[in-house]
Design a protein that fits this description.
single chain, alpha+beta, four-stranded mixed beta sheet
């Protein structure tokens, strides 16, 4: 996504998935717990044991969701003849090509690779909704303007509270996070898609133009987040907006 790969440590988790090497940094778990602390605390109230249980479920959901996102990128790379590795780091993940090979990827191919991660997460959302509705269960969809017209809130509740919480977390992470990641703010996937689209449209110095759009968009999202109590989102987009602004140094090409 948009983070710098940390140095490996002895406590990192390493495995292969679909023959793609995966490394999970120890800092990934810490960041996941930090992101989920407030929502888990709100659900648990004063019950500390319940808070711990919700945090474990939340961290598992974040792990699976981010892994699905990065595997989307990895499999898209493979589609164009490039093998890659996945690293889950603090506040996200990155997919790193192992070798660039002989062919130069066209902008459209880079758009497909960038879009594959968010699309994979949104596909998970569709699958969850389809399975629940087929079973006659209600779906606590996080966007009411979509869930209400589709009748997603109708049906029987899930049989276990913890299962309901897990599904709630899955829908939150796999709806809002890919949508945020598609915003036109480099180096988010949406920012990379925008840059490649500008290249395809023949825009001069597409990277600089994308950075300008990213600076404005990131600033607006940060302002909205600060005014709606979303502190972590606000800080994230302030950092992204500043990064875009700093990349504007130098002449137009």
């Amino acid at each position: 996504m948009f983070t710098v790969e940390p140095q490996p440590t002895q406590v990192d988790l390493s495995f292969r998935l679909a023959d793609v090497p995966v490394r999970v940094s120890i800092w990934f778990w810490a960041a996941a717990a930090l992101l989920g602390w407030s929502v888990c605390q709100a659900l648990a109230g004063q019950d500390q044991r319940q808070l711990l249980a919700y945090l474990i479920v939340w961290m598992g959901v974040v792990f699976v969701s981010i892994l699905i996102h990065e595997m989307g990128h990895a499999l898209a790379y493979r589609r164009y003849g490039l093998e890659s590795r996945v690293v889950l780091v603090h506040f996200g993940g990155i997919t790193v090509p192992l070798a660039w090979g002989q062919r130069v990827r066209r902008p459209l191919e880079r758009i497909v690779i960038s879009a594959a991660g968010p699309v994979a997460q949104l596909a998970v959302t569709v699958a969850i909704v389809a399975v629940l509705k087929t079973g006659g269960y209600r779906v606590l969809f996080p966007i009411e303007s979509i869930g209400e017209p589709l009748g997603l809130y109708e049906g029987k509740p899930l049989p276990a509270k913890m299962l309901e919480v897990a599904v709630f977390f899955l829908l939150q992470v796999n709806v809002f996070w890919p949508l945020l990641n598609l915003l036109p703010v480099p180096p988010l996937d949406g920012g990379q898609i925008m840059r490649e689209g500008l290249l395809m449209a023949g825009v001069g110095d597409a990277s600089r133009t994308a950075a300008i759009i990213g600076t404005v968009t990131g600033g607006l999202v940060a302002w909205w987040a600060f005014n709606n109590g979303q502190e972590y989102m606000a800080i994230l987009f302030v950092v992204l907006a500043v990064s875009c602004y700093q990349s504007l140094r130098g002449p137009w090409r």
